[in-house]
Backbone:
């Protein structure tokens, strides 16, 4: 019998965990009593204004950023409850302030958000590269640069370049520019440059699967965790997420091919890198400053081909290929490479080829995982097996800036497999797998009883077999979520796995799981409403709105329906040929919409068929998506109101589903 004691307390690192962390430290030459590496030195380099225990408040006085709880990183000795390598990464991410990337020309403000805000000097002002996640962080970034340089930055922003379609790069836009000043450069306004496809991808990633992704992201980023040596330590990309306001402004200039644009007297080269870290992404090169902006393609960490919040699998082949192109085109012309997360790498007398090496090593790790995964798949190995088998060659492995602080080799290899061969491993048992709950119940039944499973799992726990213990105890939780002992044991196993995870997102996921197991999945948490989601929704096209209405419709409630109508998107106009609510209007878009047995089919364009009509202004169907139909009925001019009512009745209010459990069955 095991002497394991079941309780809800957070535990210390076990002897096995300490041993595993110590072995890593020994292999990588980390002195645990005075942990230090060259990345930490780079993170501190060229600081012209240092911030410590920094706080940012929003307009209502709510704290949206606070680095003070991370002060534990100031300790010289690494905590034994944090993987030594992740300890170093978190310590480096505590370094905050204004940093000079190229003397007098390029500055970064780091440590105000998960992402950096970067300023590049033009002839008369500044280009801003990426604007962090929140209005408050971005505003603070501008202010801090002004203080550091003693000059007015805010009124001299000449352009904004947003590298890609992720919220932590565009969310702060309204903290940098006023929407009314945004426009084409030739009209004397401030242009926003983005890669082709940017607007569509922001919606697809943030709206279509947004509710699920936003919620799952709480495990990835440890949103419910308290910072501390037994809690969240960093995200691998930056200290933490900002709690501020996400915003969006429709960009003005879409980059559709590699090109050079002169912005306020400064030449800027654009390198598109589609389907890499984001579906729409681009790098920039500033020839005059010999500086290469690697967007989020090279970030000082191994990144995710599949982030665990859920996302489309990213293309590792594009990722390494575009990085190799960047190396060839800009590697020898650049003295420094800098990006939207973590810190720059520059050529020095000791490392004269640091930039080239940085790009090459980054390309190489993605290529290695890509190629070896496919090789092993072709040799008959399964995805789980491959994930455990792949290990980087020593020369690639011992590079700090591609260590798995954010992504992991295991997840990335599974992502490569999935991208080429899909999620099915070839074994027919997986053709129609049991639900998680049925599988769990069956496991417990076959073993004999929940007590017996926990007895065996506790023995595994005592031997340091934490993955096995977690898996078995979680089966009991899924079979019976009220089994407290199962919850405690699974939580303890997760916790030890967290303490020895080099990937921050694995650590966050394990610790978030442990918290929910011990305390129960939080119910009815007030969802933080951000204007950002509203800004994104307001940016949807009518086609996207029709796509989205299909996604939020309960098919069963429309199972018997077969209703066709013409949807005329109208805009009031004195000379309009159409009428809308008795007044003249122009038709700006037309769709054939077919509510057909649980689906919302549509055809974008005119139809010859004589059909009932629905006339409504731009994106009017958003009111149905938002369950506001009854209140906004008056905006629909139609001869089939019953169709809209049926649709309204079938729409699921997703706002009520933001708190589903991730570590126990949905009740
Ligand atoms: Zn990012």
Residues:
């Amino acid at each position: 019998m095991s002497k394991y004691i079941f309780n809800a307390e957070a535990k210390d690192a076990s002897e096995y965990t300490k041993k595993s962390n110590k072995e890593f430290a020994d292999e990588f030459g980390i002195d645990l009593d005075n942990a230090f590496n060259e990345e930490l030195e780079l993170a501190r380099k060229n600081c012209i204004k240092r911030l410590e225990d920094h706080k940012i408040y929003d307009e209502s006085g709510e704290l949206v950023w606070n680095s003070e709880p991370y002060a534990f990183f100031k300790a010289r000795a690494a905590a034994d409850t944090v993987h030594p390598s992740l300890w170093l990464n978190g310590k480096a991410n505590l370094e905050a302030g204004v940093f000079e990337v190229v003397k007098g020309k390029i500055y970064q403000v780091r440590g105000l958000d998960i992402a950096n805000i970067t300023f590049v000097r033009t002839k008369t002002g500044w280009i801003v590269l990426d604007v962090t996640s929140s209005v408050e962080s971005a505003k603070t970034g501008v202010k801090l640069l002004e203080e550091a340089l003693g000059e007015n930055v805010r009124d001299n922003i000449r352009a904004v370049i947003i590298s890609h379609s992720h919220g932590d790069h565009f969310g702060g836009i309204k903290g940098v520019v006023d929407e009314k000043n945004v426009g084409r450069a030739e009209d004397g306004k401030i242009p926003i440059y983005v890669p082709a496809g940017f607007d569509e991808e922001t919606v697809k990633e943030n709206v279509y699967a947004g509710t699920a992704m936003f919620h799952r992201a709480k495990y990835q980023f440890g949103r419910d965790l308290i910072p501390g040596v037994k809690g969240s330590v960093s995200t691998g990309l930056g200290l933490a997420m900002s709690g501020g306001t996400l915003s969006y402004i429709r960009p003005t200039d879409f980059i559709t091919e590699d090109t050079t644009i002169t912005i306020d007297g400064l030449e800027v080269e654009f390198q598109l890198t589609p389907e890499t870290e984001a579906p729409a992404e681009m790098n920039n090169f500033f020839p005059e400053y010999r500086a290469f902006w690697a967007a989020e393609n090279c970030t000082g960490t191994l990144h995710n081909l599949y982030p665990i919040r859920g996302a489309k699998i990213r293309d590792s082949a594009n990722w390494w290929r575009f990085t190799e192109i960047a190396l060839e085109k800009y590697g020898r012309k650049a003295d420094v490479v800098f990006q939207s997360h973590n810190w720059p790498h520059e050529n020095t007398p000791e490392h004269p080829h640091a930039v080239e090496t940085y790009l090459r090593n980054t390309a190489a790790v993605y290529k290695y995982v890509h190629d070896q995964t496919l090789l092993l798949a072709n040799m008959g190995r399964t995805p789980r097996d491959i994930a455990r088998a792949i290990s980087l060659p020593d020369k690639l492995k011992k590079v700090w800036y591609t260590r798995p602080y954010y992504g992991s080799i295991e997840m990335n290899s599974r992502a490569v497999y999935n991208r080429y061969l899909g999620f099915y491993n070839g074994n027919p048992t997986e053709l129609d797998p049991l639900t998680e709950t049925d599988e769990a119940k069956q496991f417990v039944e076959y073993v004999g009883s929940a007590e017996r499973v926990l007895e065996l799992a506790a023995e595994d726990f005592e031997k340091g077999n934490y993955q096995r213990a977690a898996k078995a105890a979680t089966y009991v939780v899924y079979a019976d979520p009220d089994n407290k002992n199962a919850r405690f044991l699974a939580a303890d196993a997760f916790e030890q796995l967290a303490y020895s995870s080099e990937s921050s997102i694995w650590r966050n996921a394990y610790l978030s799981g442990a918290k929910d197991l011990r305390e129960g999945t939080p119910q009815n948490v007030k969802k933080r409403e951000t204007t950002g989601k509203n800004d994104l929704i307001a940016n949807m096209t009518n086609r996207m709105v029709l796509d989205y209405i299909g996604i939020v419709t309960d098919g069963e409630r429309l199972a018997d329906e077969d209703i066709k109508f013409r949807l005329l998107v109208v805009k009031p106009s004195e000379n309009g040929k159409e009428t809308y609510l008795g007044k003249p209007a122009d038709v700006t878009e037309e769709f054939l919409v077919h509510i057909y047995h649980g689906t919302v089919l549509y055809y974008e364009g005119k139809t010859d068929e004589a059909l009932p009509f629905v006339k409504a202004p731009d994106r009017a169907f958003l009111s149905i998506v938002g369950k506001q139909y009854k209140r906004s009925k008056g905006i629909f001019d139609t001869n089939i109101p019953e169709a809209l009512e049926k649709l309204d009745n079938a729409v699921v209010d997703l706002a009520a589903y933001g708190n589903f459990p991730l570590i126990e069955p949905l009740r």
